[in-house]
Design brief:
Number of helices: 8
Mean pLDDT: 78
Strand content: 5-15%
Radius of gyration: 63 Å
Number of strands: 8
Helix content: over 70%
């Protein structure tokens, strides 16, 4: 959004600043109607710059180390700011929109500031103009001093170069004087070099003279700038005194206006207080009369009430004496009746207590007899359970020995038979092992025991393999055997589940899930848990 007016864009072309004058700004009220036109134009421009910064009033004040009330007064037209506040607004607005601050925009803002000062505070305007002129004079003096230093360095360099050329020319002259026997051509060469050096020396002397002349001019300009600075400082001091005096006068007038307004307000309040005092006095008199009337009524009512109270008290004393005598007679009768009931209750309680003691003794004897019978039956049942368990264990061990013997026979026969017979023998062994496991499980269930597990190393491929039950410590894959159905692929062995090892091949095991009948090859045989019953 650009300024609608060309005054912010300048004549130099380029990117225009994204600012525009503003009347309404968030956090600030509307401008007063009695503002002078020059002041209104300046404040509207400052509000536009403040709006372009994108900051709130407190953020801007904190960022530039200015009090928030001062910023509010500046942007409300109640007080005209210094140039430093204008510079802060310009830099912050340009930085927020990533544009460069052009001299034309800065000059326009300064001009609006000067016009507002001239219209509203002429003394501050003169002070600002004197301060600007002094600043320009100081800048001119500094530029003159810089030019003097540059010219002095140039003069010094040129003098050194001239001295070098003169030494070179003298050297050529001495050389030519010492060598008289040279030919005409050589003499001509020396003469040409000498003339060239003389021409360079002449040019250097002219340049030195010109630089010295410019140096003198720069020194005069510096002296003039110094004099101008001193003169402007005196003027600035005089203008400052006038500005301070004018500012004090304005403050005095403002204070007088405030005192006059306060006096008017005080007079109004005094009149209201006098009317309030009169009303209070009237109310006080009326209240005094009402209080006197109420007091007389209260005194009459008090006398009447006191007489009634005395009569009531006499009647109460008479009735109280009668009631006290009747109450004493009733109390004596009730005490005799209560003592009689207490004696009867005591006799009933004693009888019930004796009956309860007898019942307690009888119950305790029955409980002791029941406990003795329970211990006898428990011992008999424990002995019978141990005998049954021992018999089942012997039977299971005998059956297991027979099965192992049969398995050994089958293994020996299987070694002599063809591969088909070997497969049938392995199946018989598996069936026998499964039956032995079931017997062991039945025995363990009868005794309340569980199979114990221990780590079992895998037998090498060339050792005699004996099927055993095992469990894996973590999920492990089981590869399908060649010829197995495809649904066996991807099976995982799960922990806390017993599987049957039916063969070995190298460092791998051939395992079978007895629940599903799926077989496969287990590659990872480390840390297996082997069952012992």
């Amino acid at each position: 959004m650009l300024f609608k007016e060309d005054r912010w864009s300048g004549d130099g072309g380029g990117q225009e600043p994204p600012f525009e004058d503003a009347d309404d700004v968030t956090g600030l009220g509307s401008l007063p109607n009695d503002l002078q036109p020059e002041v209104r134009d300046f404040v509207r421009a400052m509000r536009g710059l403040f709006k372009a910064t994108g900051k709130t009033l407190r953020q801007f004040a904190a960022y530039h180390h200015i009090s928030a009330p001062s910023v509010s007064r500046y942007l409300s037209g109640k007080r005209l700011p210094d140039k430093s506040f204008i510079d802060a607004l310009l830099k912050s607005a340009c930085k927020a929109h990533e544009v460069d601050l052009s001299p034309e925009v800065q000059a326009y803002a300064y001009r609006l500031h000067r016009e507002a000062l001239l219209a509203h505070q002429p003394a501050r305007y003169r002070l600002q103009m004197a301060s600007d002129q002094l600043e320009e004079a100081i800048l001119a003096r500094e530029q003159a001093e810089l030019m003097i230093r540059d010219l002095q360095l140039s003069v010094s360099d040129q003098k050194h170069e001239l001295s070098r050329l003169e030494r070179q020319k003298h050297q050529i002259e001495r050389t030519a004087a010492e060598e008289q026997g040279r030919t005409a051509a050589e003499i001509e060469v020396y003469r040409g070099r000498q003339e060239h050096l003389e021409a360079q020396c002449s040019e250097l002397r002219e340049e030195i003279n010109r630089l010295e002349s410019e140096l003198e001019q720069a020194e005069r300009e510096r002296d003039d700038a110094l004099d101008r600075c001193a003169e402007l400082e005196l003027q600035l001091a005089s203008v400052e005194e006038g500005a301070e005096r004018e500012e004090l006068e304005e403050e005095l007038q403002e204070a007088r206006r405030e005192v006059a307004d306060a006096a008017d307000v005080t007079q109004d309040r005094l009149t209201e207080l006098q009317r309030a005092v009169q009303q209070a006095e009237s109310l006080r008199d009326q209240a005094t009369r009402d209080a006197q009337s109420k007091r007389e009524e209260a005194e009459a009512f008090y006398a009447e009430t006191r007489a009634k109270a005395a009569q009531s008290a006499a009647d109460f004393e008479t009735n109280l004496a009668k009631r006290r005598e009747q109450s004493e007679r009733d109390l004596t009768a009730r005490q005799h009746k209560a003592e009689k009931r207490l004696a009867e209750a005591t006799r009933d309680a004693q009888a019930k207590l004796e009956e309860a003691d007898a019942l307690f003794e009888e119950t305790r004897a029955k409980a002791a007899q029941a406990a003795a019978d329970f211990e006898t039956n428990l011992a008999k049942r424990r002995e019978q359970s141990e005998r049954d368990l021992t018999a089942r264990q012997h039977k299971a061990e005998k059956r297991l020995a027979e099965i192992e013997h049969r398995a050994e026979q089958l293994r020996l026969e299987a070694e002599k038979l063809r591969p088909d017979a070997e497969r049938r023998a392995r199946q018989s062994i598996e069936t026998a092992e499964h039956q032995a496991a079931e017997l062991n499980n039945a025995s363990a269930s009868a005794t309340g025991q569980v199979p114990m597990a221990q780590e079992t190393p895998v037998l090498p491929a060339d050792a005699a393999f004996k099927p055993f039950w095992f469990a894996v410590p973590e999920p492990r894959p089981l590869r399908p055997l060649d010829g197995q159905p495809t649904e066996g692929k991807g099976m995982m062995l799960k922990p806390m589940t017993w599987y049957l090892a039916i063969g070995a091949s190298g460092n791998t095991l051939i395992a079978e899930d007895r629940t599903t009948g799926i077989r496969g090859i287990l590659d990872d045989t480390s840390m297996l848990q082997r069952a012992q019953f």
